Amino acid sequence: MTDNLIRDVVTLASGQWLNILNNLCGEIHYKNAQPCPSCGGHDRFTFDDLVGRGTYVCRGCGSGDGLSLVAKVHSVNAREAALLIAPYVGVSVGQFVDTAAIERSRRKTEQAKEQEAAKLAAKQAKAATRAIAIVKNCIPALASNIYLNAKQVQPFSTFELTKAVHLYGDYIMSKGSLVVPIFNPTLSGLQFVQPNSEKHILAGSKVKGGFYPLSGKDSNQIYIGEGFATCSAVAECLPNALVLCAFSAGNLINVALAIRPSRPKVDIIIIADNDESGTGEREAIKAAMAVNGSYVMPPAEAA
Q: In terms of Cα–Cα distance, which of 84, 93, 80, 89 is closest to 25?
């Protein structure tokens, strides 16, 4: 093999990752919540194999592609992982590489990426259209909203459902649920928060990089947090700051990086959720480092 070992093996493995990973990483199921082959757990790991790249998401040890999972499970580097994968894609060390086969696989992967992107764009457009329709049938949320009242925070121009909304499967958002718009940069979706604090995102919403601004202020300080209640509490305490809700720990860095180019000189402060897993703090530190901002740990009772 040449120095293109990793590239060639990954290209040939496209679309074959489920079989490869079942041989190298233990039993893995497609799109089922399951234990992580690297860090364990019960249901923290999901194998989604986007565009045939063997992609996965783990709440414990992070996300990646098929090559990174093999490397992680076997505690090896990327090249060593490629050597482990090579026999499963018909390549041996020192063997002449069929460049035509690699090119066919590369083209197939590119076509799959284009098809996946087109499907995603259509799904997101449909979600944005439905989000607009749902908001039109909502009323402005008040501090007396069950969820907001329980958290003792203000609504900041969010909405409330006037009737139950069926999302998907058995998920029905009940009347009185809080509705938080997701902007990316225009309205791209919604988050629903039931009176019992259960949260759901409207299917198809473009969440990556999306946020909800709790004020329209053009401040020299921007605070970015996960949940609406935490962000609302911060916005009440700091009325002159711009506070953005990112909806999840993993999205903190995406929002921060999206904001930074247009606000190169402002202080971007990341607010971490103090959860037991430590995910909130880890992701907040990662986001803060990425934009060279500050880092704040809110009180443990913030939600």
A: 84
Q: How many residues does the chain have?
A: 303
Q: Would the pLDDT of 294 be above 60?
A: no
Report the alpha-carbon distance of residue 196 to residue 194 in Å, rounded: 5
Long-range CB pairs of 149-155 (<8 Å, 24+ gap) are 150/195, 150/197, 151/229, 151/232, 151/233, 151/303, 153/228, 153/229, 153/232, 153/233, 153/236, 154/232, 154/235, 154/236, 155/232
Reported as a pLDDT band with limits 50, 70 and 90, residue 254 is very high
d(CA 197, CA 151): 10
Residues contacting residue 79 through CB under 8 Å, at least 6 positions apart = 5, 6
- Comparing C-alpha atoms, which of 25, 23, 20 is closest to residue 35? 25
Residue 58 to residue 285: CA distance in whole angstroms? 18
Q: How confident is the model at residue 206 (pLDDT cuts 50, 70, 90)?
A: very high
Residue 157, both tokens: 């121009």
* Pairing between β-strand 221-225 and β-strand 56-58 as defined by DSSP bridges: unpaired
On the 0-12 / 13-18 / 19+ scale of CB atoms within 10 A, 47 is buried
What is the rounded average pLDDT of the residues 209-238? 90
pLDDT in tens, 98-127: 566 656 766 776 787 788 788 889 999 999
Which 8-state DSSP code applies to residue 18? H
Is the pTM value of this prediction over 0.70?
A: no
**CA gyration radius, the chain:** 22
Compute φ and ψ for 292, nearest 5 degrees.
60, 40
Give the model confidence (pLDDT) of 194-203 as tens digits: 999 999 999 8
| Residue 226: exposure state from Cβ atoms within 10 A (0-12, 13-18, ≥19) | buried
DSSP H helix total and E strand total for the chain:
9, 15
- Residue 211: the pLDDT is 96
